[in-house]
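Section 3.1: Structural characterization of target chains.
Under the original work plan, the team committed to producing a structural model for every single-chain target entering the pipeline before any wet-lab resources were allocated. The record below documents one such target. The sequence was received from the expression subgroup and is listed exactly as submitted; it comprises 333 residues.
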Amino acid sequence: MRILTTLFALFFVLSGSLQAQDAATAAAKDTTWRFRGSLGFDLSGLGIINPRVGAGTNRLTIGGLGTFSADRIAQRSFWKNQLALQLTLQQQGRTSPTQPQGFLKNLDVLRLTSTYGYTVSSNDKWFVSADLLAQSQLLRTYQSNYLRPTEIDGKADRLVANFLSPLIIQFSPGITFKPNQHLSFQYSPVAVRFIYVADDSLAILDIHGNEVKKDEQGNIIEYNNYFLGLGSELVGRYTNKYFKDRLSVNSTLRLFSNYLNEPQNMVVLFTNNFSIQLFKGLSLDLLGEAFYDPNLKMIIDANKNGIYGDEGDRLAPATQLTGAFMLKYSVIF
């Protein structure tokens, strides 16, 4: 945890010193914070008592997307922060005594981003900057994806993820180039990627990217709760509005290359949000995300039966694709 504390300290010392310079030179322009919050709901339910044959069964889905952002724009600097939670749970009516009970997790992502930049040129296009990304999940998850252990087909369930297990943090000091108000590129030659698994029972599974050593037979002989990578990171961001501000587009592409191990295998995080304004404050959001990390293992549907985690499937690095759509209500305060 000392490494994690040091990273946060470096980020806030850098941003604090740059803010002090900004306060001394930007007295000619007022500086304000802008706070925004939004909620996207994924809520549906169906209840049937004494269903006729072929009518279906009960179902309850709850969750959605929640974001909170705090942005500070000054004459020579910017500081943008966002906390986002994507969480969806589903409970299906039972159709047999062996069917599991409880909520099944569909999506669980807790993500914090913070970017600070201070201009070093008169045209406000080049900035000295620092970027922080932290990601984990909120609820514990078992191999069955249920929130509590469930025995399926006689197989015992096991815990595979929990809050802060894993925790992924990237800290990237560098230079940002903003050719216009819609597009920006940040490059860091000394970016740090840190993976921490707080739970020892999860760290030893060798699925979350922490350091694990094995013998020739594949047996684990030693493990650490963390992984530390040092490399370079390129972050591209695009935001714009079309059709008289009825359509908003937000895209971010992150590419990280680890100098210490296989730098040709990059970590990729590509997020997209297309928001269609329906009424004032109410919109339909389309979310798309692609994620790849050569150190993290995904479930591969090796037997091609459409069931992830079934017998015959395997764990290996792969690209995870996520898509969702939901109604979202936004407010500025």
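The radius of gyration is 23 Å.
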